[in-house]
Amino acid sequence: MAGLTKVEDYLIDLGISYEEIAPSTWLIEDAAKGLPRMVVSLAEPIVLIRADAMKAPGENREAFFAELLKLNGEDLLHGAYALDGDEVVIVDTLEYATMDKAEFEASLDAIGFALTEHYPLLSRFMKN
Questions:
Q1: What's residue 111's pLDDT?
Q2: In sequence order, what are the residues at sequence separation of 6 or more whose Cβ sits closer than 8 angstroms to the Cβ of residue 119?
């Protein structure tokens, strides 16, 4: 697959549905594989994987952010929760030069799993 980056080569090899949305930036959305909407960007020497989780709540923010920090420290295999404005995101970075397919797949799977498993816990902070 000459001309493809390792990222795109791995996406194809793993059979993951994706769309190139900009040069060196791919949108993944593959519910069949348990992968929610996430963006993978190659900005050598780093591969950035990012997914939106939810908006930060307007109330009980301190308890919500404490829960995010607890999840970062105790329950995330890859990446961490972060804030982008008022949006809670989960991000992971991998070193492009040494990244292999298993590491890339593990990062995607860990983010997908975390979003699925943590949403019920985090959504209790949202006002109905």
A1: 95
A2: 53, 54
